[in-house]
Structure formats: C-alpha cells, structure tokens
Amino acid sequence: MRYRPSSPPDGGRIPVTILGATGAVGQRFVERLARHPWFRIASLCASNRSAGNTYQQATDWIMDSPIPPNIAGMQVRECTPDVPGSIAFSALDSSVAGELEETFAENGYAVVSNARNHRMDPDVPLLIPEVNSDHLRIIRQQRYEAGCIITNPNCSTVGIVMALKPLLDKFGIELVDVTTLQAASGAGNPGVSSNRLIDNTIPTIDGETAKIETEPLKLLGEFRDGAIHPADMRISAQVNRVPVRDGHTANIKLKLRAHASPEDVRQALEAYESPLASLNLPSAPGRPLRTSRDPSFPQPYFHRNAGGGMAVSVGPVTPCNVLDYKFAVLSHNTVRGAAGAAILNAELLVRSKLLSLLRQ
Ligand code: NAP
Predict the structure, then answer these.
(1) Where in the chain is CATH 3.40.50.720?
(2) Residue to probe by mutation, ligand 1, list 53, 60, 92, most atoms within 8 Å of CB
(3) Is the CB of 152 under 6 A from ligand 1?
C-alpha cells in the first residue's frame, strides 16, 4: 500500500490506539497505520487474553507483509480509556464493541469504528467519504463533550453503495436485488473452519442480510434539518460465504426511476470522479470506481488490491430480463470494507477540522 503524498496536519503525526488490534481487521489497521503519514500507533489494545503479551506473541499474524518491526515488540494493553492516543480505531468484536466504544468516546477519544453496534444510531455518521461526507456533521449532536463515534459500513455494503451512488444521482433507483459472494477473511480470524469452507459455499452469514438491506438507505440518505432521512428504495439481499481469501463480490440487479440506455448507465459509472480530490486525503483512491467492459472482470484474486485496496471494481453493465440492469462489484473486505475505510474516515475527520472543534 502506498499512500498519496500528504504532509501531516499541524502539530505532526496524531497518536492513535487500535482496539481489537490482534484480530483480522486489527492486523489490517496495524499494517496500514504503521506507515501512515498523519497517524502514529501509540498503543495497541485487545482482550485480557492478549494483554501483557507483546504484539507478536499475542497475534496470529495473517497479513502478506511481515509484522512491522517497530510494532512487533509493543505490549498489548486492555481496552481501558487511559491508553495513549486521541483517535481510537475500533476493530472490536461486536459482542463488546458497543459499550467499550461509548466508554472511549465519553473519555474524549474520537472512536472510528468498524463494528456494527452504533452504525444505525441516529446521531452517529455511517460514512463513505466519497458518498456522504456531509453526514459527518451530525457528530455535533452526540452527547460526548470531547469525544465522538463515527462508523464505516458493513464490508459488502461499501462496494455496493459506491457503485449505486452515481446511478442514484443520475437516474434514481427504485429496487436493488443483490447476491454476495463473501471471502473467508470476512468471518474474522480464525473464521470459518477449513472443513466447512473448502470445496463448499455457505448460503448464510449471521446478521449480514439485514445490514445490506438497511445500511445503504442511511448512507444514500439526505442530511437535512439536523437528521439523516433514509433513501427511498427497496433492497433485497442474499449472502454466501465462498472459499476466497479476501475480496467480496456482489452481483447487483436494479430498477432505475428514470429511463436510461445501457450506454447511459455504463457512462455514468465510467465517468464517476472522486469528490474528495481537492482534500488530498492519503488513503483516498484517485479513481474510486474501476470499470471494465471485459465480461471476465472483476475477479478477487486479480482485482481486490485496486487503488491500494480502496477502489471498487465494477464489471460490465448488461440488460436484465427481470429488473433493468445487472453488473458485478468487487471490493476488498478488510481494506475498503474495514480498516482502510475507517482510516479514510479519520482522515476526513481531521481534514474537516471537526476533531479540533469538538475539543474547544
Ligand atoms: P476477529 O478477528 O475475531 O477480532 C476480534 C478482536 O476483538 C480481537 O482483537 C480480540 O482480541 C478483540 N476482543 C474480543 N473480545 C474482547 C473483549 N472482551 N475485550 C477486548 N477485546 C476483545 O474479528 P474481525 O474480523 O477482525 O472483526 C472485528 C470487527 O470488525 C467486528 O465487529 C466485525 O464485525 C467488524 N468487521 C469485520 C470485517 C472483516 O472483513 N473481517 C469487515 C468489516 C467489519 P483477542 O485477540 O485478545 O481475543
């Protein structure tokens, strides 16, 4: 992963902590934050099973690159709100994330979370910076004095919504029918047992269907009169776990509100430009959507790392006999769907100066 060149904000690199640093997403945070131009890992936290060990001892490291040498020897701490860092990136298991994240926000940390617990709270922004950066302002309504909670969507939702956004803006969307093929790493570490996943597909993932059917409505909703008004569309989802290591595919069919030819739809996706270009955020991909008219595109093994894992790959648009159009979307689930997304959210928070405003 190479970041876009960008100088640290005034005052130098910001100290951060990672909650749940030992898990699949926590490791992705460590990998990406160890070389981040704006942030510096000041502490690493996990459960009391890991606390007291070095990061190397506590972690079953599953990334492709080695553990960053300056991190391997750091001592893992318990998740208590006195650890060094002003931003707390959360990769906590959802069984504990809800309460711990609130405790950190109450104690002045900006909690930037991957967990599902607070995503649908009315005063918590569920963010994809390219799609709804204006929703970030709702943190001013949170009850915390100096801290806040912001969240990124479910790992499949993010790719789906990034592909829907230009079509919603141009033509309106009435119905979406989506079927996902989700990678093994989406189930955490160690995740699904190999005996259950090799030579197999599993047509259920706990809680996933509901997230894909509801989160896009908030993400694509309008921030008006101090509240987020959900988008007016219906989504039906079916999910599958498949024996792919990283990279979630979503096969999308949709019905538009306005008439559009196949070429209109293709061009809307191909012409989509990042609204973040002028902000110079280190993790923002230059082109958020990578499109191709090749019928064999996209494939997880070859395309999940597009844009350093932050770009979403969209295959050819073809007419659908049931709804209007269909196409496939691929995104990296632990990068764009988790750690990379949260880091981009934190970059937006810093750039928007909302973090310093909260602390005045
Ligand atoms: P994981 O591999 O199971 O890791 C869970 C982490 O939570 C570990 O660091 C674990 O620490 C820590 N933890 C568990 N119980 C704890 C406790 N009582 N107190 C403090 N820490 C505790 O899970 P994951 O896949 O990384 O997912 C992390 C979060 O991100 C989840 O909420 C998940 O839903 C969400 N998410 C995951 C993905 C993905 O693609 N994997 C994508 C988007 C969002 P120990 O090692 O000490 O047990």
Answers:
(1) 14-154+338-358
(2) 92
(3) no
SS3 assignment, position 259: coil
Torsion of CA 329, 331, 333, 338, to 10 degrees: -120
Q: What residue spans in the chain does CATH classification 3.30.360.10 cover? A: 155-333
Q: Tell me if 182 CB under 6 Å of ligand 1.
A: no
Ligand 1 atom 18, closest CA: 47
Q: Print pLDDT tens along the chain (360 aa).
A: 677 767 777 778 999 999 999 999 999 999 999 999 999 999 999 999 999 999 999 999 999 999 999 999 999 999 999 999 999 999 999 999 999 999 999 999 999 999 999 999 999 999 999 999 999 999 999 999 889 999 999 999 999 999 999 999 999 999 999 999 999 999 999 999 999 999 999 999 999 999 999 999 999 999 999 999 999 999 999 999 999 999 999 999 999 999 999 999 999 999 999 999 999 999 999 999 999 999 999 999 999 999 999 999 999 999 999 999 999 999 999 999 999 999 999 999 999 987 766 655
CATH code for the part of the protein at 14-154+338-358: 3.40.50.720
* Ligand 1 contacts CB of residue 334 (under 6 A): yes
d(CA 164, CA 154): 15
Instruction: Report the CATH number of the 155-333 domain.
Output: 3.30.360.10
79 lines ligand 1 (CB under 6 A): yes
Q: Whose CA is nearest to atom 41 of ligand 1?
A: 186
Give the catalytic positions in this structure.
155, 248
